[in-house]
Amino acid sequence: MKKITILLSLMLSSVALYAQGFAIVADKDSYEHCRPQLEAYAASVRADGYDAFVAAGKWETPEEVRDSLRRWHDTRALEGCVFVGEIPVPMIRKAQHLTSAFKMDELAFPMRDSSVPSDRFYDDFDLVFRPFGRDSVETRFFYYELAPDSPQEITCDIFSGRIHPSDKFQDRYTELSKYLTKLVRLRGENNELDKVMSYTGEGSFSDSMIAWKDETVTLQEQVPGAFNSIDGAKFYVFYQFPYMKDAVLKECRRDDLDLVLFHCHGTPDRQWIQNSPPATYDDEYYAAAKLQARLAVRRKVRSGSSPAEAKASVMERYGLDSTWVADSFDPEVMKADSLQDIRLGIVLEDVWAAKPNARMYIFDACYNGDFREEDNIASRYIFSDGNAVVGLGNTVNVLQDKASSTYLGLLTQGYTVGEWHRRTAILESHVIGDPAFHFAPTKLTVKDPYITPGDDLLEIVKNGEGFMERLNALTLLKHDDIDRYREGLRAALEDPYEYTRRKATYYLCRVGNPDDIPAVLKAYFEDINAKRIAFNITNNSACFPDSTFLKAFDAADKSFIHSGMDDGRKALVSAVGLKDYAAEAISRHGSDKRGRASMLHILRNNPYPELAPELVKLVKDETEPLNIRVVVAEALGWYTVAYNRDWIVDELRDYHPAEPELQDEVTRTVGRLNVYLR
User: Fold this and answer.
1) Which of 114, 298, 446, 597 is spaced 20 to 30 Å from 283 by Cα?
2) pLDDT confidence of 339, banded at 50, 70, 90?
3) Residue 573, class by beta-carbon neighbours within 10 Å (0-12 exposed, 13-18 middle, 19+ buried)?
4) Which secondary-structure segment (H or E) carries 129?
């Protein structure tokens, strides 16, 4: 291995012996072009009490970086780090259970697309990886599999962040220099987190106002100072104006704004702010809605493999005449559609021009922080000429049904962004910008405590004072005895916080104990207008055995449901059908056709407890094709809250198949389930 040259800026005379370390890991060229700015940044972090130093070199492999971080952790009490410039990108495979939503088939899709770019390789020292090769084209990518004997959960030892400039809008070293100069200036602010803006795009929360409204309560618990002034907390939603982009970017330009939360869909180069505004009698709204409806139809036509067939299909499906689709491929119409489309989202050029000033951004969206790309939305915010310095973005797609502000109160109390993120990190989430950035601590009471070992989690779920406190306790209770967890879930069905009720219904269904059906059914009818809760119940109802939930639903009194209300039965029937589909795949004894493996893959998102005995039997059946047994062994790793998860572990713990590939997957699954059997 080629020896690396490390340049350390050590000003030990100004660093207390007990200071925790902070490493600024830079590539050699970035250091040579921006040395004064990097040293000034290190000095500003030292002023906060860290033993901050610059480590620059020609970093050849992720192992070199990780080994250095481990050494500094042991010798210099390393607390965190930031990667500046061209630092190798670990691309992680066989670890999709550590993501919130990513479930791409690693065999069917290219490695670049089906791997997760993740710095958990660097900041969680306990995880064990197997090298899988370097990308021959994009040579900064290094592929790894999570080893079977690795811990199967994320517990970061240090925090980390990425500062990756781009040549897209100006020279990358000019961009990096300007960012670091801005960062040093703004790190000197004694600025409390007391000005917040939240934006909710179309499709987020499934456009459920019941789900959306509670953010005002959770943010008041976490950022109380924002609710002491008329402009301290602002909440926008996609249908307020025909085109929301200008309004959102105008808010982001406010120099007094501290934090922006974006709840919307995304890609590396775009935030999907909205699609179609509601068609009201207001002329401006109506005109916009009409344009966007026609744009949506023409999009569908253009996405078809055959223009003629696509036109006929769209006309038949939506009952449209030919005027809606006739000009779909007219160059002038396509140009107009492109201009209309750009009004519905924020793209890289918009961010560059807007010069956003809010200090921090949370991008609760897919791919907005994808540092595989030359540029991405999260990076563009911090590198633009405004005062933005740090963001939180995801490198792949991310679950919509998550609490994006968990432990956010830590930021209000003066914790660094990295310290906050270390407690909430998933495989795909990353700090983009300075992870050592922090706000001044507030003197106000923050109701978002970090629950400590020894706390009675069940008691907190039942009687905790704050929305976030009870939610955090319920999340941790997942690792407790299954009966205590069920008791906590049933109590949470009555919680005033919609998100807590939503997750309680989701997991109580997935436990799959039929004794809980009356409680879930009661929650469904009492909260039938809560779209996310109803969705979670109907989609996961088949986790109860023998269609018992559907039978109980049919027997219930539904006289109060008015004629215009969807009672959900069609979705319940569909859920049962999906389970039958999976059961049919299990029964195809001896088949190794790709279709069967794909059918069995759905068990990762649909872990039906009643099918577990047949799945374990299939894994152990040596007459079954190996690839099928491997797929099923992996799927069993998603049975994390099933009532029979202990039994699955007992059945697989001492099972040692001769095939290494199958043994690896069995080992991973036992490790994943053991995380929840503590």
Assistant:
1) 298
2) confident
3) middle
4) strand 129-134
For 484-531, the pLDDT digits (tens) are 999 999 999 999 999 999 999 999 999 999 999 999 999 999 888 898
Residue 281 pLDDT: 46
Q: How far is CA 199 from CA 233, 278, 301, 437, 537, in A?
A: 11, 17, 31, 23, 27
Which pLDDT does position 321 carry in this prediction? 86
| C-beta atoms surrounding 265 within 10 Å | 22
Question: Could you give the CA distance from residue 677 to residue 607 in angstroms, rounded to a whole number?
Answer: 17
Cβ neighbourhood burial of 187 (10 Å; 0-12, 13-18, 19+): buried
Cβ–Cβ under 8 Å, residues 612 and 650: no
Tell me the residue length of the chain: 678
Per cent of the chain over pLDDT 70 is 95
Is residue 308 classed exposed, middle or buried when 0-12, 13-18 and 19+ CB atoms within 10 A define those classes?
exposed
C-alpha to C-alpha distance for 426 and 398, rounded to whole angstroms = 10
Q: Is the separation of the CB atoms in 646 and 677 below 8 Å? A: yes
Q: CB neighbours (10 Å) of residue 52?
A: 30
DSSP, res 197: E
Among 56-65, 455-464, 562-571, the least confident range: 562-571
Residue 430 class from Cβ within 10 Å (0-12 exposed, 13-18 middle, 19+ buried)?
buried
Instruction: Provide Rg for the chain, Cα atoms.
Output: 26
Token pair 């987190």 is found at: 193
Question: Among all chains, which residue has been given the structure tokens 């909440």?
Answer: 235
CA 244 to chain centre: 24
| Nearest residue to 464 (alpha-carbon basis) of 421, 424, 496 | 496
Is the sign of the CA dihedral 305, 307, 312, 314 positive or negative?
A: positive
Cβ neighbours of 326 (radius 10 Å):
12
DSSP 155-177: --SSB--EE---SSSS-HHHHHH
Using alpha carbons, list the distances in angstroms from residue 281 to 178, 239, 286, 287: 48, 14, 6, 10
CB of 457 within 8 A of CB of 488? yes
Mean per-residue pLDDT over the chain, rounded: 92
